[in-house]
Each structure stands twice: as structure tokens, then as C-alpha cells.
Design brief:
single chain; 5-stranded mixed beta sheet; 14 helices; about 20% strand; globular
């Protein structure tokens, strides 16, 4: 009879530090592996159309590596005209937590989702007769194409009003018949998966259990420690899918003081105490450190939400409020904008006077990264902290 291994207990502070290290914010940054190393480490980098300081997929490596060149970021993700074409793709786009960039080696493990999409009975867009076969035929004949080159992305200027060709090629992307491993500007370039995905990875013969076991394991590694809900949210799995495989995923059960629910951890994350230098940085609202609101509140005691799609009168923190990470804590928020070469902090929330130097440092570093030479503060939620912040910024900019 096997004696069950005792469940490890972590303090809330230990769990927070494990999570920070797993997400690349504690310890020396891995500059040698660069942007691609960040992508492999996180397992997924979310895409979004909003661009304030930069697009979110650029902000993710910046937050972990510092002032990495934006062209370097683009060429690391995609075959692109801004960098030398890659012999083989290192990443592809697909539906994970949301629309994400994923390491190309994970292509086989999303077979379960491609199969689910093929069996899906209802869609938001109607597929015109013959459109699907036509886009496949055209890509096969002409090579990688954008939606515009396939006949147009939209029928009207409305963002949601897709053309028949766009509906068809996005359906083919979800099914896995085409793949996006390249962008031109901000346009997806679609190619046949059989051409673009390395042959060793192209197979779709992994069953759902194998796929789910891998993604649960990856989520646990990327989180360091998390509840079932945290792990499920990382790649948007269902709770029952996680339950079916977590026992043999390689993750180990742990108890975290104050969490009030069972958790699971990457055993490698528990081998040594997480130590090292903390990053001080602005975070994208789409950063995987703060993806799940309940987890962010549980780990950091910090309420995070994106208000870009909230009507202006109902916004509390601003259009694109970026959490500020410093000393392993979330110490404030900045809603930024750019006016020429000035970074404008339209609204700043500070967790007390001690947060002022860290927020100033994060603003100055971000300004330098996007080639701004000045920082202007408009509103601070605690008015008495506005002048100390302005003085700190002036000192840092001189």
C-alpha cells in the first residue's frame, strides 16, 4: 500500500513569490533566450488591437526583459519584413486564453480544440456557399495571403461586418486547415497548415486527454501555483476537463494559507525558495500575471479590470489602466497616453506615498522605451500625492 504524500502548505507570501518567479518577474531576466524565451516560458501571449504605449504583445516581453527593441519583438513572433525571415516558424496564432501567440511546438496539443470547433453547430457569422473551398483553393495556388488579398476583410466599415472570404478563412484557421505564423503590419497572413507547420508537429492524432494533460501541466508551470479555476482559465479549459487530467499532469496538490480552496503547483517551483531582484514595470492589462481577476485579488490584494470597453462615465481607473508592479506587489495604476514625445499619465492611482518612487521609475522607463523624452501627470486619485510624484519624475528625468 502506497503512503500518500503529505500536502505541502505555502504561506500566502510564498505563493505570491512562486507566482512572480513563474511569470518571469522575480530573479534575473533570461536575456539570452529573449522574446522567444518569454513566449515559451509563458506558453501564451495574448493579442489585442488596442495600442496606447504599444500593443499588448510588445508590452509582455518589455515588462520582463526591459527595453527590448520593438522590431526585435515582432521578428521574434512572426516571419516579418522588419526582420530576417525564419527558416521555420517559432510561433502561431490560435485561441488559447483568448487570441494568443503560442509556441509552434504546442500545435499538436490544440488538436482537441480544433476538433471541437469542427463539431460546433452555431457561429456568429454565416458562411456563404462555396466561400470556404474558394479561400483554400486560392491560398493553395497563390501562397500565403491576407484577408484583403483573399477578397477583402469587411463588407462595410463596421468592424464586425466580415466579408465572406474573411468568415471562411477564419473558420479554416479555427479548424486548423490554415494557420497564421506571420503578420504584415497588423494583418494576419494565412497559409495552409500543411505548408507552414513543421512536418514533425503537423499531426493531429493526440487524443483529447493527451492534449488536456499537456495544457494543464503548462498552465501550472506558467502560474507556479494556482487553483483549479486559475489553471482552467489559463488556456480557457472547462473545469471538468482540468479535473479529468490534473491528477496525472505532474502538478502536485498544495494548500495556500488564506486561499480557502485547494491548489496545485509545479513541483520544480517548490524545490528552491524564490529569490532575486523584482522587476519594477508597467503591466499590460492583458498580461498573464493579471489575466484572472479573482486570482489577482487573491494573490496581490489588487482589483484589476480593463475599462476600455466600459462607457467613459462609468470608468473608475481609466481607458487602459496599467497596473504598476514593484517589489513583488501591485502598487498602483497608470492610464497612459502619448502626445508627441510626451508620455501623459492621464490618471494615476497610488497605494500610498511609498508607491511614488516606484511609479515614477516605471513611467520614466516606459517613456524611454517608446522614445518619449518627457512625462506629464494629469490626475492623481489621491491629490496630495500629485506633487510628490511630479517631483520624483522631474528628478528621474534629469
Amino acid at each position: 500500500m502506497t503512503t500518500p504524500r503529505p500536502t505541502i502548505t505555502l504561506s500566502a507570501d510564498e505563493a505570491r513569490r512562486v507566482a512572480l518567479r513563474a511569470q518571469g518577474f522575480l530573479g534575473a531576466p533570461d536575456r539570452k533566450s529573449g522574446v522567444r524565451g518569454v513566449l515559451r516560458h509563458l506558453g501564451a501571449v495574448q493579442l489585442d488591437t488596442i495600442s496606447v504605449l504599444a500593443r499588448s504583445h510588445e508590452l509582455i516581453p518589455y515588462a520582463r526583459l526591459g527595453a527590448v527593441g520593438r522590431k526585435t519583438v515582432e521578428s521574434a513572433y512572426w516571419k516579418s519584413s522588419v526582420g530576417a525571415p525564419l527558416a521555420q516558424p517559432t510561433a502561431f496564432e490560435y485561441w488559447s486564453h483568448a487570441a494568443c501567440i503560442l509556441p509552434i511546438e504546442e500545435w499538436p496539443h490544440f488538436a482537441f480544440r480544433r476538433r471541437a470547433y469542427r463539431g460546433r453547430p452555431h457561429w456568429n457569422h454565416e458562411l456563404p456557399d462555396g466561400a470556404y473551398d474558394q479561400v483554400i483553393k486560392q491560398i493553395r495556388a497563390e501562397g500565403p495571403l491576407t484577408a484583403t488579398e483573399l477578397g477583402g476583410a469587411k463588407k462595410t466599415n463596421e468592424w464586425w461586418d466580415w466579408s465572406g472570404a474573411k468568415v471562411a478563412v477564419e473558420r479554416a484557421l479555427m479548424y486548423g486547415e490554415v494557420v497564421c505564423v506571420e503578420r504584415r503590419g497588423w494583418k494576419r497572413v494565412y497559409d495552409l497548415a500543411e505548408r507552414a507547420v513543421p512536418k514533425a508537429l503537423l499531426h493531429d492524432d493526440l487524443d483529447d486527454t493527451e492534449c488536456l494533460r499537456r495544457l494543464v501541466r503548462l498552465a501550472g508551470q506558467s502560474l507556479g501555483v494556482g487553483t483549479r479555476a486559475d489553471i482552467a482559465d489559463y488556456h480557457r479549459l472547462k473545469a471538468e476537463q482540468v479535473d479529468a487530467v490534473i491528477a496525472d499532469s505532474g502538478l502536485v496538490p498544495v494548500t495556500v494559507e488564506g486561499w480557502g480552496r485547494r491548489a496545485w503547483a509545479d513541483p520544480a517551483a517548490l524545490e528552491t525558495a524564490p529569490r532575486g531582484r523584482h522587476r519594477t514595470t508597467l503591466l499590460s492589462p492583458f498580461d498573464s500575471l493579471v489575466w484572472e481577476r479573482a486570482r489577482t485579488e487573491r494573490v496581490f490584494g489588487f482589483t484589476h479590470r480593463l475599462e476600455a470597453y466600459v462607457p467613459r462615465p462609468k470608468r473608475v481607473f481609466g481607458y487602459f489602466a496599467m497596473p504598476v508592479l514593484a517589489g513583488g506587489r501591485l502598487v498602483g495604476r497608470v492610464d497612459p497616453a502619448r502626445e508627441g514625445r510626451t508620455l501623459v499619465a492621464r490618471q494615476v492611482t497610488l497605494d500610498g506615498p511609498k508607491a511614488v518612487p516606484s511609479v515614477a521609475q516605471a513611467l520614466v522607463e516606459a517613456a524611454s522605451w517608446v522614445d518619449c523624452t518627457d512625462v506629464r501627470v494629469e490626475r492623481v486619485d489621491a491629490p496630495e500625492l500629485r506633487e510628490p510624484l511630479v517631483r520624483e519624475l522631474a528628478h528621474a528625468l534629469t
